[in-house]
Design a protein that fits this description.
Layout (H helix, E strand, L loop, with lengths): L24 H18 L36 H14 L8 E4 L8 E8 L5 E6 L5 E4 L8 H17 L9 E3 L12 E3 L5 E8 L6 E7 L7 E2 L5 E2 L2 E5 L7 H12 L15 E3 L15 E4 L18 E2 L5 H7 L9 E8 L17 E5 L4 E3 L3 H8 L21 E3 L9 H18 L6 E6 L14 E6 L5 H9 L4 H4 L2 E5 L2 H7 L1 H6 L2 E4 L8 H9 L7 E6 L2 H13 L3 E10 L8 E8 L3
Parallel strand pairs: 1-24, 4-14, 8-15, 19-20, 19-22, 20-21, 22-23
Antiparallel strand pairs: 2-3, 2-7, 3-4, 5-6, 7-8, 9-11, 10-11, 11-12, 13-21, 15-16, 17-18, 23-25, 24-25
Helix pairs in contact: 3-4, 3-5, 6-7, 10-12
């Protein structure tokens, strides 16, 4: 008996590759994280520790405020504004304008673009709002004062529709079996992926009418697309047809409910829906990609559907007065929705993805209304709006606008400025400076990097020949649709290249040698290193002006220091715009000119 082994003392063998229960080191590490998170949640007896979906104790949330309104009492005192003024003091001391001026417009109702997270409230019903800074906690903002009223109304309507048809808000602590593509060893990988249905809503406002373009981000892989029978091919993939069907019954009811709530006066003719999308390879989008570059001119027909959107996700919910939306959703008469168009983005990415939208073109479905919003910039109106709270109103640019209308096309899968009225003044300043280079006869040769849909570049088309560029494959179609509405002699000098900025400066050297002006409007991380290197090593020999529009001041400081310290460039002019009043953010416009003749 003494030699007999007790039952249960034998150690379990460690699973090896090929065993059904084998986990890779990464999977084991994630499993430990999940266990630690669960234990931490169980220990949170007072409700102060959040497990990713639970609602904290409401008594701890009384002081929670809209994070986008932190400095609304005096936006000019935001730390980044003060830092910008100090930074430019020595740089501008020898310039014609020796002081750095920051311009401030309306404090409220300026935001016409908003991406909002959807998470469960204390009753497990839908709550829509913003993430608190540096946290995974969502704060419902049913009446955000920064939002255009149409966004707040849309949030109310979406919440009502969710409750009416039983939409389940996204939760992050679910588990799902998922095959990891391209990794045979991890074919049975159990990933921690969100359960439920609605993850985010993106709302864009047509400034002229107040109508809203809504994108529903749905936590599910996209349904298959019906193959086209015309055999036509375009771009990098064959043309395919979306037949309008929605295979998820809850989503189908949700879409129908939202459409039924729309105002009768809005022209949402289903015949205007563009049901053609292009199939593209499922590649991961990232800056610096070297494949899939294309060059198109105004006569091209580019019809691609993809996205390069940035955002944050993964949130828990505060118990901050969500009863406002809940009570309104119970009304016998549902709120009316001024609906422009409706899109679906299928995004079943797991919880550690930071992208609000899924990248692949097959994940987008246009289900109702016009494909894109059309916006026109009004320079006179934009200047008047910026005079309301602006002590430096007399220093605003006074540009001569183009003599012809310029329509900007904005579907939901391209970048659009959230405060387009204030941004119009930046374009006005650029026009004013460019006219100093224009001799009235020949046009200025201009290259634009990070150009988006051409918001800046197209508004210089009357005085410049333009080559605009960006890596987002959705941009060329928007650019060309805008350009086709311009006079014929203007169209002939407009070109769009689907390339990222690094590829442009390395592969288009002949183009850059001919250009006189370079316009850059990079994302928050600033210029690619290849662009900075090119400016410091070559561009100063031929270019007369570099226009830098920055939304990330720390990155701008880095790039500005590199250009100035190279001895090849100097700052001629700089000013700031508070496009997001109340936030610690500033949009910087700077003109660089060669310091060496």
């Amino acid at each position: 008996m003494a030699n007999m082994k007790k039952k249960g003392n034998k150690k379990k063998a460690v699973p090896q590759k090929g065993d059904a229960d084998y986990l890779t080191p990464t999977q084991l590490r994630n499993a430990r994280k999940r266990r630690a998170k669960q234990e931490k949640s169980k220990a949170a007896v007072d409700g102060n520790i959040n497990d990713g979906n639970k609602v904290p104790n409401k008594n701890n949330n009384a002081s929670q405020k809209d994070p986008s309104m932190k400095y609304i009492s005096d936006p000019m005192k935001a730390p980044i504004v003060q830092a910008a003024k100090q930074y430019f003091k020595p740089i501008l001391q020898d310039c014609d304008t020796s002081d750095f001026h920051a311009h401030l417009g309306p404090l409220y109702e300026w935001r016409t673009v908003s991406k909002l997270a959807v998470r469960p409230d204390a009753s497990s019903k839908v709550a829509i709002g913003l993430f608190l800074p540096q946290s995974h906690t969502l704060l419902p903002v049913p009446k955000c004062r920064a939002h255009h009223p149409s966004i707040n109304r849309a949030v109310e309507c979406i919440t009502h529709a969710c409750h009416a048809v039983g939409v389940v808000p996204y939760q992050e602590n679910g588990k799902a079996k998922e095959v990891v593509a391209g990794d045979a060893d991890d074919a049975s990988d159990e990933v921690e992926r969100g359960t439920s249905q609605l993850k985010y809503v993106a709302i864009n406002v047509a400034r002229e009418t107040g109508a809203v373009q809504i994108t529903l981000v749905w936590n599910k892989p996209p349904p298959p697309i019906v193959e086209g029978n015309d055999g036509n091919e375009e771009g990098r993939g064959s043309k395919r047809k979306y037949d309008g069907t929605i295979d998820d019954p809850v989503l189908e009811k949700f879409v129908a409910k939202l459409i039924s709530m729309s105002d009768d006066n809005i022209n949402n003719d289903p015949a205007t829906i563009d049901n053609e999308i292009d199939e593209q390879p499922k590649t991961k989008r990232r800056r610096g990609r070297r494949d899939g570059n294309s060059t198109t001119n105004v006569g091209s027909n580019v019809d691609v559907q993809s996205d390069r959107s940035k955002g944050n996700n993964n949130a828990s919910i505060t118990d901050k007065e969500t009863s406002h939306s809940s009570s309104k959703s119970k009304r016998s008469n549902p709120p009316k929705l001024n609906l422009h168009s409706l899109w679906i983005n299928y995004n079943a990415s797991w919880k550690h993805s930071n992208a609000i939208f899924a990248f692949d073109s097959s994940t987008w479905r246009h289900v109702h209304g016009p494909r894109a919003m059309i916006e026109h910039l009004n320079f006179d109106k934009a200047q008047e709006l910026l005079k309301s709270n602006n002590k430096n109103a007399g220093l605003l640019a006074k540009p001569t606008p183009p003599s012809f209308p310029i329509p900007l096309n904005f579907p939901p899968n391209v970048f659009r400025q959230a405060n387009l009225d204030a941004f119009t003044n930046i374009i006005g300043r650029i026009r004013e400076r460019m006219r100093k280079l224009h001799d009235g006869n020949s046009t200025i040769a201009c290259v634009e990097l990070y150009g988006g849909v051409g918001t800046i570049g197209l508004h210089l088309s009357d005085i410049a020949s333009l080559v605009s560029s960006d890596e987002n494959p959705n941009n060329p179609k928007c650019f060309h649709e805008s350009a086709r509405e311009l006079p014929a002699h203007i169209q002939s000098r407009l070109v769009y290249k689907q390339k990222n900025a690094a590829d442009m400066v390395t592969s288009e050297q002949a183009l850059f040698k001919k250009s006189q002006v370079l316009i850059v409007d990079p994302p928050r991380k600033g210029l690619d290193s290849e662009v900075v290197d090119y400016l410091c090593e070559k561009a100063y020999k031929t270019m007369k002006l570099v226009v830098y529009v920055s939304c990330g001041f720390q990155a701008f400081q880095r790039d500005c220091d590199a250009l100035v310290n190279s001895g090849r460039w100097k700052v001629e002019f700089a000013e700031g715009y508070l496009l997001f009043p109340g936030s610690d953010a500033i949009e910087t416009l700077a003109f660089f000119v060669p310091s060496i003749s």
